[in-house]
UniProtKB/TrEMBL annotation:
Molecular function per GO: metal ion binding; protein serine/threonine phosphatase activity
Residue ranges of domain PPM-type phosphatase in the record: 102-360
Organism per entry: Cucumis melo
Regions of compositional bias (Low complexity) in chain numbering: 32-43, 50-62
Family: Belongs to the PP2C family.
Alphabetized UniProt keyword annotations: Hydrolase, Magnesium, Manganese, Metal-binding, Protein phosphatase
Region of interest (Disordered), ranges: 32-65
Cofactors demanded by this protein: Mg(2+); Mn(2+)
UniProt keyword Chaperone, yes or no: no
Protein name: protein-serine/threonine phosphatase
């Protein structure tokens, strides 16, 4: 906003899809061409009136020569895309997606966005060579995509490193340390990012979040929120901020920390770090037979779609495979992701939206 000790953990990190549409989930490439055209001279004045009764003085001749010989400065080459630091245009695709065994994720740029899409995701599967151990994350940037970009690359590594150093009873503390370590790594980038993550290990599910990205579990078709949004207007969060010397004010129709930020926890946001903390809230639970799938999504979905509506749509698309307790075709999961994003957009969402669905049983 620290170097991490090397770990012997074996994992297969996935940050973006190998498909062309997802290549820029890593880091956007810019047109770096800097060629410029040759300087052009000023056009010759249309009329130069010289008195016939007298010869021009040396000073006037010098003045005319100067006008005729003066050159224009070289043109400045302006590339079609400029780097975005919280504003401007950055070359990124309209959508990014990834499919894998038991999961799919789909990101779509919001219609109001004039800058680069700020949502990111990350997946690490096959941790320590075990396909049943994995780490998933959804990241929603604000004030630019840089913090979300770095956090998507580094948080999984930091959390996994910390978790595998600890005992089962220390998982929540290990996840918190991974979050705080990542926050320090993005402290100088400007902007911030909300995120929600899920760690699957030894038959347990550990879900954590900062900000308003959310995790929703389907228990035999019944929606259960596993995270609580860190909104500035949440009573316990507002009390925490006020006790630390800050304030929460109503601006633009919503509660905001110091009158600016709508979330009370996030990665980055160094200028508000005294009040906007990066310590996550976590929940660890056993994956039971009735735990069908998990939805991780940014607020672009949850602002327009209820938890139960989201679960119902996934059940409608993937219901047959889910009820038979067999692996779901990733293309079906992807279809459910896309339909959820479409539903949110049809209800007026203008925000970037990311939906990730993970099969648990």
């Amino acid at each position: 906003m620290c170097a991490v000790a090397a770990t012997t953990t074996t994992m297969t990190p996935i940050f973006s899809s190998p498909k062309i549409a997802s290549l820029l989930c890593k880091s956007s490439s810019l047109n770096s061409s800097t060629s410029s055209s040759s300087p052009r001279s000023l056009s010759t004045p249309m009329n130069l009136h010289v008195s016939a009764s007298s010869s021009p003085s040396p000073s006037s001749v010098s003045h005319v020569d100067t006008v005729l010989k003066r050159k224009r400065p070289a043109r400045i080459h302006v590339p079609h895309s400029m780097p975005s630091i919280g504003f401007g245009i950055l070359e990124t695709p309209e959508v990014m997606e990834e499919e894998g065994e038991g999961y799919s994720v789909y990101c779509k740029r919001g219609r109001r966005r004039i800058s680069a899409m700020e949502d990111r995701f990350s997946v690490s599967v096959g941790i320590q060579g075990d396909s049943r151990q994995a780490f998933f994350g959804v990241f929603d940037g604000h004030g630019g995509a840089k913090v979300a970009e770095i956090a998507a690359k580094r948080l999984s590594e930091n959390v996994i490193d910390q978790v595998w150093r600890r005992t089962e009873s220390e998982v929540e503390e290990a996840i918190k340390d991974g979050y705080l370590m990542t926050d320090r790594e993005v402290s100088e980038e400007g902007g911030g990012a909300c995120c929600v993550t899920a760690l699957i290990r030894n038959g347990n599910l550990a879900v954590s979040n900062v900000g308003d990205c959310r995790a929703v579990l389907s228990r035999n078709g019944r929606a259960e929120a596993l995270t609580s949004d860190h909104r500035a207007g949440r009573e316990d969060e507002r009390n925490r901020i006020e006790k630390s010397g800050g304030y929460v004010d109503c601006c633009g129709g919503g509660w905001r920390v110091q009158g600016t930020l709508a979330v009370s926890r996030a990665m980055g946001d160094e200028h508000l770090k005294q009040w906007v903390i990066s310590e996550p809230e976590s929940r660890v639970m056993k994956i039971e037979d009735d735990c069908r799938f998990l939805i991780l999504a940014s607020d672009g979905l949850w602002d327009k779609v209820t938890n139960q509506e989201a679960v119902d749509m996934v059940e409608a698309v993937c219901g047959v495979e889910i009820k038979k307790n067999r692996p779901i075709n990733p293309k079906l999961i992807m279809s459910a992701c896309k339909q959820l994003v479409t539903l949110s957009t049809s209800r007026g969402s203008l925000d970037d939206t990311t939906v990730m669905i993970i099969q648990l049983n």
